Here is the input.
Amino acid sequence: MNNAEMSTKMARVHRSDDDRNVFTSPGHFASSSEQVNDSGEQKVKRKSKLPKAPKRFRPELWGSASLSLTSVTSSLNRTSGLSSDNIRSEFVLRSNRDPPLNSDVEFNDNLRRAREAINAGVRPMLIRAGSSGSYFIRDASNTFLGVFKPKDEEPFAPLNPKWRKFFQRMLCFCCFGRACLIPNHGYLSETGASLIDERLCLNIVPKTRVIRLSSPAFFYGRCCGRAIEPYPKEGSYQIFVNGFKDAGAVLTEWANLGGPEAALTPEEYELFLIQFQKMVVLDYIIRNTDRHSSNWLIRYIPGKEIRLAAIDNGLAFPVQHPENTSRFRQFPFGWSSFSFAQQPWHEGLRNFLLQLLTPLFVHNLCLDIKNLFRHDSSTNRLLTYIQLRVLRGQLWNLRLALMANEPPSQLVKRPQILVRRRYSDLPASDDWDKCFRAKQVDFSSPGCC
Ligand SMILES: Nc1ncnc2c1ncn2[C@@H]1O[C@H](COP(=O)(O)OP(=O)(O)OP(=O)(O)O)[C@@H](O)[C@H]1O
Ligand SMILES: [Mg+2]
Here is the structure.
């Protein structure tokens, strides 16, 4: 078997286990599958052979987390004997002619509808808010399907269509840029967040993949006074979630009713808190520098449903701890000042994560992220390596905080560290100290921007 065949085979093994995790894990986004039924009956029928996701998120499911934990670890163990280095990432869908590595029925169906709509002349809609060139992708009946963020329209990319960003880029990068992040890597960061979300069974990030789309609605610039012919742009595509509002607006509504404890039933409060803590886990691991209250959404139907969606994960996966890169700006986690952050961890979630976070799991997670980030051949490989040192450091701290049962408000106060591997191929032990070497970050000379 040659290398390419081996890669495809391994990716398939990985994939089929992922599907099981996705459909068996609680709290999975039904999002746009609700809308998919009309045109995608065939696919929906195929999907129905898989075990059904519970309609409502039941917190007691975390008590029996071993079920999903077993499937997560078995998928990792199965691939662990082989080096999955340099395998094409299943999170990158190169073109619609490529055989899809990603077998996610919901995502593929959504993307098929998006492509059909664009080919039929439905124009993506530029999102006015925000700093990047981001587009809502709609179908002919004006149903929103996804959010596409082309790489070359990111905040500091050459084809960013927002004038405000143009001036910031030209005049004052120090005050607005983030020196700890790789420029124009937002689309990989968005997708990486979705990868972490799926691997840790958090189910709070709407599915996101790297894809290519072309439409005259995107910004192509002009050459010699003439508009440039549209060509396929690479970027991140995230499934649109319906019926959600900005967290800031929802939290204000709850505050007006006397606070979340008064506005929500005890069961709703618990469901919300679990999802809030999952967002903490996600943001902490990816070291998100941009989780303000418009970058997470809440869908709340009193007495029926309460769900959280962590969107806009494009400013994460730094190469250095952000605190170490600027003397003028701080990048605190937006949620750390909320009262929810002082609540103790949900016991089921805590146990689940503690069992999951083995050196082997961390090793495989880092390989997956590396394979995704190396998709961008313009990125220096060393940068991916140092991104992973930060990522491992965050996982190291998270595990220690979970073991010590420190709530999120304490977790963020842990000293920043960088973690390297001690092993060469695979971690041979379950002992973190034997597998990894942690080093505290030196903050003595922060940069100026
Ligand atoms: N997956 C999604 N589902 C539903 N709505 C979304 C989704 N992604 C984005 N939105 C909506 O679009 C708005 C802008 O999206 P987003 O914050 O991702 O864009 P941005 O240009 O990166 O902005 P920023 O300046 O915050 O970085 C959000 O506030 C939200 O209302
Ligand atoms: Mg935003």
Summary: The first strand starts at residue 125 and ends at 126.
